[in-house]
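Key idea: predict the complex, not the pieces.
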Amino acid sequence: MTDKLKRVLTIDRTTRDAIVAHARRDHPDEACGVVAGPIGSDRPTRFIPMLNAAMSPTFYEFDSGDLLRLYREMDDNDEEPVVIYHSHTATEAHPSRTDINLASEPNAHYVLVSTRDGAEADGTPIDFRSFRIVGGEVTEEEVQVVDRYADDPDATPKKAEH
Amino acid sequence: MAEVRIPTILRPYTDGERAVSAAGGTVAAIIDDLEANHEGIKERLLDGDDVRRFVNIYVDDEDIRFTGGLSTEVADGATVVILPAVAGGSR
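Result:
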């Protein structure tokens, strides 16, 4: 892939709202999941909420069996994890030291949502932020919420790419 | 020989290959063979004599944590999948 370093996460409102709703539903435990998209498209299209096997207010981890099924499914669909999201329920929506140490998808947008300070309630403002985590380096990026994705031919997977 | 699926983050060790072949009758032997051809990869998988806590290894779809760890048998033609955990925490 010849992706340039991306500085923006473009995400449709329905998917963004689904991530927020998941974070609120699982509060005070951390919620986690993936939004998959066609390889190389940088377009998060398939919302996949995951079970937090740790069921913890301070930690999240996909169940190892779920993880294998998820990656197989994405492989079969020529998808990749465009967004990997999780919530912090008592701290800010910024990657923690643990998040940084464990980040293993250099091409993904790491989305963090914080449900602290009452933000677990529907209709309240909520922090929704996106980061790149590459080799221990964290770079925050702009989040652009769109009603729908533009009809961009570059967003469809190209057979020649792999 | 087994087919070993390599996750994105470890593909720098395999010249970008998504899957490589490795020989060995157990996961431990497979990892040694991987190391022989892709130097440095073993350290990313093992912490001393154990698989790293946040690395998942599956042999024919079974997580080796439940099938004998590094001594899990790998049959000829088996598929070994390596997946880093998707995990984190607020602390």
